[in-house]
Each structure stands twice: as C-alpha cells, then as structure tokens.
Specification:
about 30% helix; binds flavin-adenine dinucleotide; 5-stranded parallel β-sheet; FAD/NAD(P)-binding domain; alpha/beta; globular; 12 helices; 4-stranded parallel β-sheet
C-alpha cells in the first residue's frame, strides 16, 4: 500500500477511531438539547449519527432534500461502466433506527439570532446547535455560456452523482472512435482534487476497453498542477499512451467560455471542439450557507479550525465541502468525503462539550483518498493533521502516498483498487448505518 509502516498505520487508526477523535467528556450528561443537522451527505449523516451515539438524550433532527443519497466517490467508475450506480446509493433507515428524526425537506432561511431554520415545506425548526453540511453548489457564470439548464440537459457536469452521471456515461458510450472527450477543470478549491483526473482515466479505460483507441481525452485545466500527478501520469503512460492530454493553466486560470451548440471550449490559447464536452464549473459552499451570510469573499464558510464552529455566527458548525478548513500554503483540508467525516466527528465533540459547559477536546483530522486509474490500478494518499499555532499541519510520519517505483507495482496497484472499494463500504457504513 502507501509508504506506511505498521506503527504509522496504528497511529492513523487511533485518530480515525471515533472515541479517540472525540474524547467527549461526560458525553452522556449532555442535556436534551435540540441539534439540527442540515444535509445528509457524508458530513451531515456522520454528525447526526455520532451526536446521537455520544449523547443519546440529545434531540437530533437531520434535514435532507433527497430520500436516497448517491455517493460521488466511485461515481467516475460508473461513467466508464466499471461500477454500478445502485451500489453507490443509500437511504436513511439506519439513522432513523438510531432515534434521529429524519425530515425530508429543503432547509431555507437560517435565523442565527432566533436560532431557527425555516424549511421549504413550511415548518420552522428551533435549535440550540446547528450543523451545516450542505456540500457544494456551482457558480455556472464562472464559465461563460454554461448554465444550470445545460447541466441538467445535454451538458452534464456529473460533479454531483446521480442522473447526470448516467447521462455522461451514455454520451461516452455513444462517442465514435476518433472522438474527443473534453473535461474542463475549474480553479481550486473544488471537491475531490483528484476527481477530474480520475474521470479522464476512467473515460480512457472505457475507450481502450471498447477498441476506440483513436479517441482522445483532453483535460483543459485552470490549474498548473494536480493531486497525485506523478501517479496519474505514470498510469496514463502505461495504460493509455498518447490518449490523454493535459493542458495546464488554460487561459490564465480558467476556461473562458463554451459554445454549447458546437460543443467548443475556449481558452486564451485556443479552442477545442469536443464530441463530449464535460464542463466542471467552479464551486462555492452550499447555497444555504451562502444565503445565511456564512461565507467569505471566496464563497466558502470560515470556521474555527479546532472546533468547526462558524467564525461568523456562533452555535453553527459548518463541516464538509462547504467549509474552508486551514490555509494554504501550509495546509488546507481537501474537500473529500473522508475530510467531511472527520470534521463532523470533531464538530460533534465540540458541540457536546459546549452544551456541557466544557472546553472542546483537542482534535486530530484525517484524510484518505483513493483513485482508480485503470481496472486493477489504484493508488492513494493519506494524511493526519493537527492545528499548530493557528495553522493546519501534517503530523510527521503519519500517512503517505503510494510509491511510484517498485518491482511489485502491479500487485500493489491491484490491492489498492480493492482497498478503494473497501474504503467506500466502510465509510458509507460509518456515516449512514
Ligand atoms: C466524481 C467525484 C469523485 C469523488 N471521489 C471521492 C473519493 O474517492 N474520496 C473522497 O473522500 N471524496 C470523494 N469525492 C468528494 C466527496 O463526494 C465530497 O467531498 C463529500 O461528498 C462531501 O460531503 P458533504 O457532506 O460536505 O457534502 P455532500 O456529500 O454533497 O452532502 C450534502 C447533502 O446536503 C443536502 N443538502 C444541501 N443543501 C440542502 C438544504 N438546503 N436542505 C436539505 N438538504 C440539503 C444534499 O442533498 C446532500 O445530500 C468525490 C467527488 C466527486 C464529484
């Protein structure tokens, strides 16, 4: 697996274990306070579950728009036909059985003074503590010519897994040999930093597997580098020589515009006509966080790095993709399911401590991210981090990245492709079961 020895692995495991992350003092003494969680994805489902587990007397309500959650992790494999979307879906019965009130509705206006959340369905929920984990929404105007209607129509971004994932799959499958599949990557931060490059790999895997080897995958990137670059480039050279082209830093930081009719993407340096045009638009925090004034000028929710409590309004905790956790250049937590889950556990510890009038526990955070670049070809990166002098920093020697050069590379990559599937099963169970 990664450059990871047993001692480091146990160290990482220790911080990943709920009790160790939370260190919740007198958790069971917490009063029957009302905690509302908005968003039943990785962050929100985990927060609701661990709140109820750590303090069963709490009145926990989870508000979620959809009855079924579809995991984005492993959704690129659905586009290539190497995965089934049904395996990525999960409902909320597990959380209901734990005594969490699950309300299927859309949360609208937050009143941070009265401490209420109004639901689109007409109800208003009062809270003592509010957790927001609404994921991301898109800035469609960030790419001229692209709109929400196009995303829901002929030009799916498929960056929220679901019907758009299947639509993009269909378009790939209909693409003729010799066709060009263009992926545009927004300026960071965006959810799942290796996601677009894993997608390019999966598209190439489909094309190669179906003998369409005259086709090309073009990545028009608004950035000059990307996550796990060396590992991806090694995989591309080995599995898809000449098929995937990465064009970095396109147009001084962004893809300028598209013409949906001709499926052309324009950058400052040229224009690229696509057979399949997959625009991934820039993101910002979920609309509910933005509309409540909980975001900064870049569109993300600033939080206290030690507790995940909003620095704009107290008694609101923002976790997952919506928050900005840490600062570059030292370290900022990537927007991943694994980050969302550990941030949610840290928020739970901080909420229960606050409700009990105690200081918040000192947290550690973990991120693990697998990518599958070809059938039986997986790799990963793991980091454990803590807060030091107001900055997020790596815990030395805890974590690592898959090795590039090793005689046993085929075996290791095959094992990591299996671990990726095991990782998703475990994290889905940790969050939703
Ligand atoms: C293609 C792709 C591949 C990925 N692969 C990986 C991977 O391998 N590993 C990894 O760790 N991460 C991966 N990710 C990233 C991961 O999906 C996200 O980081 C993670 O889902 C963030 O969790 P979250 O709780 O913040 O948001 P989400 O999981 O998006 O959940 C947000 C939830 O909030 C609900 N919601 C939003 N607003 C409201 C509202 N107003 N009222 C009610 N409900 C609301 C939504 O319906 C949704 O269910 C991938 C992402 C993509 C796009």
């Amino acid at each position: 697996m990664s450059q990871f020895n047993r001692r480091n692995f146990l160290k990482a495991l220790a911080v990943a274990a709920p009790a160790s992350v939370l260190h919740v003092p007198n958790a069971r003494a917490a009063s029957k306070a009302r905690v509302v969680v908005v968003g039943g994805g990785f962050g929100g489902a985990t927060a609701a579950k661990y709140l109820k587990m750590m303090s069963p007397t709490l009145d926990v309500t989870l508000v979620e728009k959809n009855k079924i959650y579809t995991s984005c992790p492993l959704s690129n494999e659905v586009i290539s036909g190497h995965g089934n979307i049904k395996d990525l879906e999960i409902g909320y019965d597990g959380l209901k059985k734990r005594g969490i009130n699950v309300v299927f509705d859309e949360a609208g206006t937050i009143d941070p003074v009265k401490k209420t959340v109004a639901l689109k369905g007409g109800k208003t929920l009062a809270y003592d503590a509010l957790v927001l984990s609404p994921g991301i929404d898109f800035n469609y105007g960030g790419v001229e010519g692209y709109t929400q209607e196009l995303a829901e129509g002929d030009l799916p971004h498929a960056y929220k897994a679901g019907p758009q994932t299947l639509k993009l799959q269909k378009q790939l499958m209909a693409m003729p040999d010799g066709g060009v599949f263009v992926i545009t990557v927004p300026p960071g931060p965006f959810r799942c930093p290796p996601g677009p490059y894993e997608r390019a790999s999966q598209v190439a895997a489909y094309l190669k597997g179906h003998g369409k080897t005259k086709s090309k995958v073009l990545i028009l990137d608004s950035n000059d580098s990307f996550s796990k670059k060396g590992l991806f480039e090694q995989a591309w050279k080995l599995h898809y020589p000449g098929m995937i082209e990465w064009i970095p830093g396109a147009s001084d930081g962004k893809v300028v515009k598209i013409d949906p009719k001709t499926r052309t993407a324009y950058t400052n340096f040229g224009e690229h006509k696509a057979d399949v045009l997959n625009v991934i638009p820039p993101h910002h925090a979920g609309n509910i966080a933005k509309n409540a004034g909980l975001t900064n000028e870049k569109g993300w929710s600033p939080v206290d790095m030690l507790t995940m409590e909003s620095t704009v309004h107290k008694d609101i905790w923002v976790v997952g993709d919506s928050c900005v956790h840490g600062d570059l250049p030292v370290y900022a937590a990537p927007k991943s399911a694994h980050s969302a889950v550990t941030q949610a556990k840290v928020a739970v510890g901080a909420i229960i401590a606050k409700l009990n009038g105690q200081p918040a526990p000192v947290p550690y955070f973990v991120n693990t991210c697998y990518s599958i670049a070809a059938p039986d070809w997986g790799f990963s990166v793991v980091h454990v981090y803590r807060v030091d002098n107001g900055k997020l920093v790596y815990v030395q020697d805890a974590g690592g990245i898959s090795v590039i050069d090793t005689p046993s590379i085929t075996t290791l990559r095959r094992l990591e492709a299996e671990y990726a599937i095991g990782w998703l099963r475990n994290i889905m169970a940790d969050s939703f079961a």
